[in-house]
């Protein structure tokens, strides 16, 4: 799993750097002795690029003396168990408002309860957050998710699609974060080899899911209105990640590396009091037609 994740991070950042024309800063880190969490990782980040205004892709492999509360709410029997976790997580914020923000994460956690056998589970998925909605982009993204999961059972895409719709939801706004994708957590039902194969299939599908959309939208002309709306919608993204995201909570609660945990934040965002888009506008269409649960396939 470690070898796969390091290779995945390298493939994605190499491809995105070539598309952008810039380069990712690679920051290898290791937790110092004496800290609660031990381990190492590589944070790769591209900032102020031509295509990607901010793009972070991080690998981490850490060990801790006890699982944090965010990891045991569905597994109370493992509360206090030592654990090992590894994963790759990325968020890309394009410069062009017509190109959607994207998130992808694949991870593995092993906990060893006292006087018990190690317990292993997986999580991950990917989801798309457009500023301006395009049906062909949403269909393409969901089709890639469906294709990645199809070998592991016909139930996986519809289950994980619904899970994604329910998870990436701003309860305080009563609003989805984007047009979804797939999401799964605490997953171990297929057996060790198939679990591993499934999570790797999801990670490996990311470039096929996202790159064609980015290529299609990155050069679309835009002006101050579109840029202002992009920053406003990024504010919603920040709200979800800080208030609701279990991955963010897990990292902070377990004593993770703050700079790496918060690489998902956009470089700029804004908030506007009771913002209401003009009826019938493209901004209004985002809420009415895209920020609603839909069957995209």
- Say how many strands there are: 9
As a percent range, the share of helical residues equals 25-40%
Q: What is the spatial order of strands in the main beta sheet?
A: 1-2-3-4-5-6-9
Supply the number of helical segments: 10
Low-confidence stretches: none
Q: How confident is the prediction overall: mean pLDDT?
A: 91
Silhouette: globular
- Strand percent estimate: 25-35%
| Biggest sheet descriptor | 7 strands, antiparallel
Question: What key attributes describe this structure?
Answer:
single chain; 39% helix; globular; two-stranded antiparallel ribbon; alpha+beta; 297 residues; 9 strands; 25% strand; 7-stranded antiparallel sheet
What features would you describe in this structure?
This protein is α+β, with helices and mostly antiparallel strands and 297 residues long. It is built from 10 helices and 9 strands. 39% of the residues lie in helices and 25% in strands. The strands form 2 sheets. It has a 7-stranded antiparallel β-sheet with strand order 1-2-3-4-5-6-9. A two-stranded antiparallel ribbon has the order 7-8. Strand 1 and strand 2 form a beta hairpin. The model has no long low-confidence stretch (mean pLDDT 91).
Write the layout of secondary structure elements.
Elements: H1 2-20, E1 25-30, E2 38-47, E3 52-64, H2 69-72, E4 83-94, E5 101-111, E6 119-129, H3 135-149, H4 156-167, E7 169-170, E8 175-176, E9 180-187, H5 192-204, H6 206-217, H7 224-243, H8 246-253, H9 258-261, H10 282-290
Helix pairs in contact: 1-6, 3-6
